[in-house]
Amino acid sequence: MTEIIKIFDTTLRDGEQSPGFSMNMAEKLKVAEQLERLNVDIIEAGFPISSEDDFLAVREIAKNIRKPQISGLARTELEDVDRAWEALKYADNPLIHIVIATSDIHLKHKLMKSKDEVLDAAVKAVERAKAYTPDVEFSAEDATRSDVDYLCKIFEVVIDAGATTINVPDTVGYAVPEEFGSLIRHIRETVPNIDKAAISVHCHNDLGLAVANTLAAINNGARKVECTINGIGERAGNASLEEIVMALRTRRDFHKCDTNVRPKHIYNTSRLLSHITGITVQPNKAIVGNNAFAHEAGIHQDGVLKEKSTYEIMTPESIGVSKSTLVLGKHSGRHAFRERLKEIGYELSEEDLNRAFKRFKDLADKKKTVFDEDIEAIIIDEILRIPDIYKLVYLNVISGSVTVPVATVQIEMNGEVTQEAGFGVGPVDAAFSAISNIIKTESKLIRYAVNSFTGGTDALGEVTVRLEENDIQVIGQGAHTDIIMASAKAFVNALNRLEYRKKHPVVVK
Ligand code: KIV
Ligand code: ZN
Questions:
Q1: 3-277 belongs to which homologous superfamily?
Q2: Considering only 254-263, 408-417, 433-442, 468-477, which range has the smallest mean pLDDT?
Q3: Residue 381 CB less than 6 A away from ligand 1
């Protein structure tokens, strides 16, 4: 019999708190909507007491996302639990997730508390949470470096206090699969009241073993797993959702387990996160990397052409990589466009569809064939973008081998359009300098990258820039067939995000 493993996605909490992956509320909501489409069981929406932004994002997700359970993290301080509940109370099915460290190393150097004090704090926090909602998860941070008898004891007392899930985090990615599997088995066989709670695991990837450890835990009785899209998370990241889901699906014969996730939404979810954060996955990343289904070696190509299963253990279509050969162009109508959007996983409102279709028509006039990647870029650029303070209205650049590159730019701010010119060593530099003459920014450009979505010189280019000001880092993106235009859009987008960040600082208490 195949057992269902619950997927607890922590992209918006553990993933989002790692450097470079911060998202604003609108972006978090987009990711949460996509996670709902993917059909994860639980969305960890954030850590409400850590900042006002996090609180508001958890509350917004709790108000808007109906199907998955919504979780919010809290330490054992009672005000953490109260704050988590304030944000989660709007959810149909809320989960308060309580964490405290249990290893000697953390008790001595970080918490400066005795084992009894930690035990007491854990019980009180679970009881407080339980008074709010029936579902409470307790995590023993740094479980894999904790004294096993103490770990079992704390799980026993929190279950008595009402915890419905006990989570075993490999916080520092220290565990080895056989050892981690045995630990889960030991907990399952030793904690006397374990039948009253689900066993969950949360593995970090410091030694590249997060997914292997998660699978070992499943094979030894864990029935809930915490993971993130593209494996993002603290340091080397968390166990990657797409790898766990596809490992279970592809080797169901071995694990005898599966998930409720709809794999055909995996690819889009991964892309959406990359677009929003500006951080793409490495080409050889399992499941979602660009090369994950590419066969380069002649002998492999020969095999795949004769029979796909020679070198393919799963199909690209199964994770939603489009197999459509139907291409869109300037003669394609609104209906075909809408159908194509649906096929690649986007269902837009009428208003959004109209905006996206207009952008599609503009692109199709310039470009013979519009590929799925182009459409995706339009959606990200036109629909998923947050409301801007600065809007790029006009850009004209003159450059060449005998002229000093000069750019003229118009930016709209608070309903007023301002125009400035700027010089530079090249056209992008000139455009950035003209923009900076209008938006007097103190920020430093610390990264500039260009990526082409499809082949050909008429491809949509996507530019990502990273800016830094007073320790705040933001990324901005812009897509256009003209790379200078894409660069200017990316720069303005980053300046918008910087303004937003300055007004909504992340405060970790
Ligand atoms: O890594 C960790 O221990 C965590 C806990 C909050 C589960 O992220
Ligand atoms: Zn973690």
A1: Aldolase class I (3.20.20.70)
A2: 468-477
A3: no
pLDDT higher than threshold 80 for residue 506? no
pLDDT at 509 (0 to 100): 35
Report pLDDT for 296. 67
Q: Is the CB of 141 under 6 A from ligand 1?
A: yes
Q: Point out the least confidently predicted range of 36-50, 279-293, 365-379, 388-402.
A: 365-379
The answer as to CATH 3.40.50.10950 being correct for domain 390-507 is no
This prediction's pTM? 0.79
pLDDT tens profile 140-161: 999 999 999 999 999 999 999 9
Nearest-angstrom CA–CA distance, 226 and 213: 12
- Order of strands across the sheet with 416-423? 390-398, 406-413, 416-423
Q: Looking at the CA of 231, which ligand is closest?
A: 2
* Cβ neighbours of residue 250 closer than 8 Å, sequence gap 6 or more: 313, 314
What is the C-alpha R_g of the chain? 25
Q: Is 87 exposed, middle or buried (0-12, 13-18, 19+ CB in 10 A)?
A: buried
Q: Which residue has the tokens 């988590």?
A: 84
For residue 478 and ligand 1, the question of a CB distance below 6 A is answered with: no
The alpha carbon of 145 and the centre of ligand 1 are apart by a number of angstroms equal to 13
- Please give the distance, rounded to the nearest whole angstrom, from the Cα atom of residue 138 to the centre of ligand 1: 10
* CB 46, CB 27: distance < 8 Å: no
Q: Which of 8, 14, 98, 146 to mutate to test the pocket of ligand 1 (most atoms within 8 A of CB)?
A: 14
User: Among the atoms of ligand 1, which is closest to the Cα of residue 10?
Assistant: 8
| 391 pLDDT more than 50 | yes
Domain positions in the chain are 3-277, 294-384, 390-507
Give 195: exposed, middle or buried? Use CB within 10 Å, 0-12, 13-18, 19+. Answer: exposed
Is the shortest distance between the CB of 169 and ligand 1 below 6 Å?
Answer: yes
